[in-house]
Design goal:
CATH topology: Tetracycline Repressor, domain 2
Number of helices: 9
Shape: elongated
CATH architecture: Orthogonal Bundle
Radius of gyration: 19 Å
Distance between the termini: 53 Å
Helix content: over 70%
Order of helices and strands: HHHHHHHHH
CATH class: Mainly Alpha
Length: 200
Amino acid sequence: MATQSRSDQKAQSILSAACRCLSEKGYAATTISEIAAEAGVSRGLLHYYFKNKEELMAKALRAAGKDMFQLFDEAFAQSESADDLAARLTRTLRTLTGSDHTYMNLTLECWAAARESPLVAKEMENLYFRVRNSFGERLAEAKERGIISPPIPLDGLAVFLLGSSDGLFAQFYFQPELVNDEAVWEAVETSMRVLLGDGT
C-alpha cells in the first residue's frame, strides 16, 4: 500500500511539473527532458509513468480540469442568489486567468496540439463534454432551488458560458493587460447576472 502511494505521488509530481512547463513554454517548445528535470526525476522514470509528451499533455489537461471543476462546483454550492452566483462565477474566472493561469494556458495549448494529436483531441472533446454537462446540472440545481431563472434554455446557457470563458482566455492570452481591467470584469458579471435571472 505504501509503495502504491509513493508511486501515485511520483506520477502526480511529474504531472504537476508537466502542467507548469507546458503552461509556461507551450507544447511545441517543451521537451521531455525539461519536464523530467522540473519533476526531479530521470527521463527513464518519467517514461515508466507516461509514454510520451502527447500523453503527458492529455493527462496534464485532465489534472488541471479537476481543479477547475472544484472551483466552479464551490461557486454554485455556496451561492444564494443570481447576483451571488454571478459574482462567484466571475471570481472563479478571475482565479483561472490570474497569476496562476495554468488552466488557461493549457487549454489554449491543447487547441493547437489537438490538430496534430488524436489523443489530445479526444481529451479536449471529453473535457468540453464534462464541463457542459456539469454546468447544465449545476444550473438545473440552482433553478430548482429558486435562486436563478434563466431566460434561455439551460443547455444553451451551459454552452454559451463555456464558450464565453474560452473567448476570454484567448483575449487575455494575447492582451494580458485585460486581466486587470475592472471594466471587463464588471461587464462579465453584469452579463452573467442578466443571463441567470433572479429566480423570482
